[in-house]
Specification:
The chain is about 40% helix and about 15% strand. By secondary structure, it is α/β, with parallel strands linked by helices. The strands form 3 sheets. Strands 1, 2, 3, 6, 10 and 11 form a 6-stranded mixed sheet that branches. Strands 8-7-9 form a 3-stranded antiparallel sheet. The chain has a two-stranded antiparallel sheet with strand order 4-5. Helix 3 crosses helix 11. The relative contact order is 0.18.
Length: about 400
């Protein structure tokens, strides 16, 4: 007789509890966390995300007596630098950062410099809803194994947004942007690559244009960088003259670029949130005709993680918050387009899908099928090298 999905989930949870002794200590973690304030350092450039973090804090305060104070960052490197300074000063406890939203190069830097707490993901009861196999998205950050030193909380996919009335036929691949921009000069641009969004635009092109995309999965070397980026720079040199302001100036971030799209100065923008267009339309920040598109071959995607620094003052509270972020009800609330619209990081095979059954939709909200294949992020070292080279070539 076949076992029900519920029975299988319960059995899996029981197995996880047996194989992860730390789960037996969760009640003690809850007791130690009560009364703590978790200082969550997180990028503060998106109001919907800020509002969601505030909601998380209200929920954890009511349920567990753990409050959350968001420390809004313009760049995650700000917090990494602060933690590194504290380590250099011998501040090995009572650090100023309890939880940090982190990805890619910043995670690699913290890992290499010993700035992360011991592995904690398997301590979290709600980790039972994740695929924790070594190569699963929840266990890899920009090709770097997380070793359980990060906990996932939302999915991200790089998407383009176009005004479907002014630009009904956007490019189907990154190479096609050259011809499109030549036919529509000044109607597209990208954020400055010093911003994560601008860097991701370059990475998306690199992944498509590199002679050997598998080389991008390894740490960058001078020889590999020269060979794999040569087609990228040829492509960009052809694209740049037809960008907004002839490619001599760039929006500071995606929010400014979105405003230019809304004002009719651009026809194409970009985001790392597939739901951002639908949410912006609802808020009156984009025209009703805005729609999402991705290259036919897919687009870069990754998981957003939270990590606990080695010297966090409130590690127990930080674990409670990380665990709450993995609660299926929390993930469903986050996926609601009226809240955040971010897709869940949980393994669908471990879930009761009824939790997600009644979420609202919108014309500008793509489905997972609409987004096509997810392309892997290059190794974190490529992003640093790529933005440095762009600045050296184009900001003289």
């Amino acid at each position: 007789m076949r076992r029900s999905k519920t029975a299988m989930m319960l059995a899996a949870g029981a197995l996880l509890a047996l194989t992860t002794p730390a789960l037996a200590d969760w009640d003690q973690t809850l007791a130690d966390a009560r009364g703590q304030t978790v200082y969550w350092n997180a990028w503060g450039g998106d109001q919907r995300t800020n509002d969601f973090i505030a909601w998380v804090g209200a929920q954890t305060q009511d349920r567990f007596g753990v409050s959350v104070q968001q420390v809004k960052l313009a760049d995650t490197a700000e917090a990494v630098t602060r933690i590194l300074s504290e380590k250099a000063a011998g501040r090995n406890t009572e650090g100023s950062v309890d939880l940090i939203w982190i990805n890619g190069p910043n995670f690699l830097a913290m890992k290499d410099q010993g700035l992360l707490a011991d592995p904690f993901l398997s301590d979290l009861p709600n980790a039972q809803y994740l695929d924790l196999s070594p190569d699963a998205p929840a266990m890899v950050d920009f090709t770097i194994p997380t070793e359980g030193r990060e906990s996932p909380w939302r999915l991200a996919r790089f998407v383009f947004i176009h005004d479907s009335e002014r630009a009904p036929t956007p490019p189907r691949d990154m190479a096609g942007f050259v011809a499109w921009a030549a036919a529509h000069p000044g109607r597209m641009t990208h954020p400055d690559p010093s911003n994560f969004m601008g860097a991701t635009f370059l990475k998306q092109a690199l992944v498509e244009l590199a002679p050997d995309p598998q080389a991008l999965m390894q740490p960058v070397t001078d020889q590999a960088f020269a060979r794999q980026t040569a087609p990228l720079w040829d492509w960009y040199d052809a694209l740049r003259p037809n960008l907004w302001r002839q490619g001599q100036a760039f929006p500071e971030n995606e929010s400014i670029q979105q405003q230019l799209l809304n004002d009719g100065q651009l026809d194409i923008a970009m985001s790392f949130d597939p739901a951002s267009a639908a949410a912006a339309i609802e808020q009156g920040l984009l025209p009703e005709t805005a729609r999402v598109f991705v290259p036919d071959a897919g687009s870069i995607g990754n998981v957003s993680f939270v990590a606990i620094p080695f010297n966090a003052a409130h590690p127990e509270g930080a674990k409670v918050v990380a665990n709450f972020l993995l609660d299926p009800q929390t993930q469903a609330h986050m996926q609601d387009i009226t809240v955040l619209g971010s897709f869940s990081v949980l393994d669908p095979d471990r879930l009761d899908q009824n939790v997600f059954a009644d979420l609202p939709t919108a014309p500008a909200l793509p489905t997972l099928q609409d987004l096509g294949p997810t392309l892997s992020e290059p190794h974190a070292s490529w992003m640093t090298r790529l933005t440095q080279e762009w600045a050296a070539r184009y900001t003289r």
